[in-house]
Structures are given as structure tokens and as C-alpha cells.
From TrEMBL:
Keywords from the named record: Glutamine amidotransferase, Hydrolase
Organism listed in the record: Kitasatospora nipponensis
Highest rank taxon of the organism: Bacteria
Glutamine amidotransferase type-2 domain sequence ranges: 2-255
UniProt protein name: Gamma-glutamyl-hercynylcysteine sulfoxide hydrolase
NCBIfam families named among the record's database cross-references: ergothioneine biosynthesis protein EgtC
Free-text function comment from the UniProt entry: Catalyzes the hydrolysis of the gamma-glutamyl amide bond of hercynyl-gamma-L-glutamyl-L-cysteine sulfoxide to produce hercynylcysteine sulfoxide, a step in the biosynthesis pathway of ergothioneine.
Amino acid sequence: MCRHLAYLGPPVSPAELLVEPPYGLYRQSWAPRMQRHGTVNADGFGLGWYAEGQPHPARYRRAVPIWADENFTDLARVLRTGALLAAVRSATASTTAGEAAAAPYAADGWLFSHNGALTGWPKATGAVAELLEPAELLGLEARCDSALVWALLRRRLRSGQEPARALAGTVREVARCTEARLNLLLTDGKVIAATTWGDTLFHRLELGRSVRVASEPGDDGPGWTPVPDRSVLLATPDAVTVHPLDSALREDPLR
């Protein structure tokens, strides 16, 4: 499956968000509490973050378990950022290994992560691949289901669709072709957008200050709010809105 988290707010160290919480993303790599599919997330990890004055994010990705990378804890301790997206990976069977398959994916100032799977990859998902042009398929960053979903979403974003609508349209587009779990997470450093389709998602809003969106809470403190399945979420430090996924799909020009 995978676990992921996005944050917007005052600059903090990634360690404060990922490592120090008692059930944070770092621990979720070997002991997730709410993961419905798979038991560990040891097939790689990634961190993407935005620096002040830089429109395009930086990334640090590895194909090893997050706990096996001593450099990560040092990086997470000293880096500071007001916007990040991080993920730990549980690879879908038959997908490729390697850093290129680890989220977050990035393009045009966006960071993206997929918590889920396209069932029966790759044989049962040919209809999804047919949605892309040959050049788009050849340009996939990795031979895996998440990279395929990202290519579909990126096409919608480049067409000018707003994040929530683009995510919802991508989920429905894929779900019409194959059985899938599609919790998607997207940020441009200013807004977080996400979908729930087959697994858990939570948000924690400190109004006017910060917001976190995560597969599961990093602690047992107050403020964590579950997002219903088959929903689309849009979040900033000033507000979180959640709507049924179908409501974001009316008159979808790419359906």
C-alpha cells in the first residue's frame, strides 16, 4: 500500500513531522496502525520540500527502508521548510524497484504520492495504459502503477484543471478501467489536495497556522479528523474542505 503525509505551515524540520511523533511516518514504515493492505513499507521512501523563493521543490528519495538510511535522520533534523510531502513505499507486486519508483513524483512545481495499487499489475491494467499516448508511456518515470497514475493526473493539471477536480477525474478514469485503491496526495507548496478511495486519510488543522494531511495520525492527540472514503479534500492552513468525490466530476471534459 504505502503511507504518506503532506504539511503546510510555519517552517519546521521534517523530523518534527515524520520522526519525532510516536506514530509518525518514520514508524509507519515498519509498524503502521491503520494500514489495510500490506504490513510494512520497506520498499523505499521519499521526501519532497519547498524552499523560500524556489517555485520547484527538492526531493530526496531512496530505494531502501527509511530506517536503513542514516543520512535521512540527519537531513530531517537540520532542514527547515514550510511545505513538504513525504511517503514510505510498499511496492505493488511486479512493479520495479529503484529510487525512480519512490514517491514523491514531481513536475511543474507539484509533488505527488499514491497510497494504493492497481490490482493485477501489469496485465489487468492495460486499459489504463491505453489512456495515454505512446510518448507519455515512454516518458514514465518508473515502470509502476503509481507512475502511470501520476502521468494521467499530470495531463489534467497541465490542461488547466484545478487540483481537486484533476484528482477526482483521475480516480474515476482509472477506476472505470480496473480495480484499484487510489488514495492520492498532491501539493504545490500552497495547497494540499487528496482523495480517499480504498484506504484511510486524516487531516489536522491548526486554523490560521498549519495543516497536515496523512494516511494515519502520527499521535493520539486531539484534532485529527478522518476523511470519509470516496472523498476529495482541499486544504490550506486557513481551511479544509471535504466533498464526495462524485461532486467534483460533473461535466468532466476528459471523461
